[in-house]
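Quick one:
INPUT:
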């Protein structure tokens, strides 16, 4: 299906990779945004799955206000809420050098060393929740002079690229999602033990369909990711490992991905229901600061082709944050 550059309500959208990714021009999301322009963005997101905007003049308040146009805002509840700018708890600051009250600094580097495979960083935001976010909006404040790109993959393209017998097989599977599923956490390591203790005291675990039906487009997508999908329900550990390995390999195939180079003022908006993403992780040695800010929009419980709807195993569903300033 061709994706030519389109221009509606003064907004241009150009496909930049084979299966996903739209470069958006002609809009300032930090200023007044008419309904026709916003509707164009929403339609473009459903079509391209991730949108990229450059040169946006967006502060914390503007970021939150823009996110609320997409729906109710949510976040992980305490004590897992992470780092946020003072006065803006709706925002998660993504910065490996930010002081995290839970784990201190340099946790990201430590966490990467615990990955059990090179693809273990690929994730869909917060799938251990029974109702993961529908949309994520990430903006760049400071970036490194080189490195620090982010990649996204189309989970619909990955599903559609499977041979029919495997699609039929996957359609009936369920999988458990939990944090640190892609890591080997060591009980005798002080930091690992601290992280595990926090997660043991405030667990978040859900069972999702392996294939998710998008609630707006009706397209099917593989809803698994190496960072958070721990096992296939009903299979032995060995069987689950093999099946998940096949699915992880499928969703991370290069042809289904798009890669974005950040600059200050860049914004990425993605449909968290049908994408997974990965930070390249190639900037830590630069000594330069990389600071991004993310807001997430509340989602519903995923549903599979057979009507199965995600079930909560441990923890609480995500809830909307109040609209008034907190």
């Amino acid at each position: 299906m061709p994706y030519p550059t389109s221009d509606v309500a003064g907004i241009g959208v150009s496909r930049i990779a084979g299966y996903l990714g739209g470069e958006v021009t002609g809009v300032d999301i930090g200023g007044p945004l008419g309904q026709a322009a916003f509707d164009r963005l929403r339609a473009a997101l459903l079509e391209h799955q991730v949108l990229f905007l450059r040169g946006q003049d967006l502060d914390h308040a503007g970021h939150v206000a823009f996110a609320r146009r997409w729906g109710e805002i949510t976040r992980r509840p305490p004590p897992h809420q992470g780092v946020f700018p003072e006065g803006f708890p709706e925002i998660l600051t993504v910065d490996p050098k930010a002081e995290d009250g839970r784990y201190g600094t340099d946790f990201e580097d430590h966490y990467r060393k615990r990955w059990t495979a090179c693809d273990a960083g690929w994730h869909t935001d917060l799938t251990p929740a029974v109702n993961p976010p529908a949309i994520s909006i990430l903006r760049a404040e400071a970036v490194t002079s080189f490195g620090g790109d982010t990649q996204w993959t189309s989970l619909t393209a990955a599903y559609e690229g499977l041979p029919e017998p495997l699609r039929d097989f996957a359609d009936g599977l369920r999988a458990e999602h939990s944090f640190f599923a892609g890591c080997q956490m060591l009980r005798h390591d002080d930091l690992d033990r601290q992280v595990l203790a926090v997660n043991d005291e405030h667990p978040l675990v859900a069972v999702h369909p392996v294939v998710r039906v998008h609630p707006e487009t009706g397209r099917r997508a593989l809803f698994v990711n190496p960072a958070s999908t721990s096992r296939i329900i009903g299979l032995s550990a060995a069987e689950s490992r093999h099946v998940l390995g096949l699915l992880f390999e499928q969703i991370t195939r290069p042809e289904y991905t798009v890669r974005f180079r950040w600059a200050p003022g860049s914004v990425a908006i993605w449909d968290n229901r049908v994408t997974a993403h990965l930070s390249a992780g190639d900037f830590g040695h630069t000594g330069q600061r990389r600071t991004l800010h993310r807001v997430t929009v509340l989602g519903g419980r995923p549903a599979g082709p057979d009507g199965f709807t995600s079930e909560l195993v441990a923890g609480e569903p995500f809830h909307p944050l109040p609209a008034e300033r907190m």
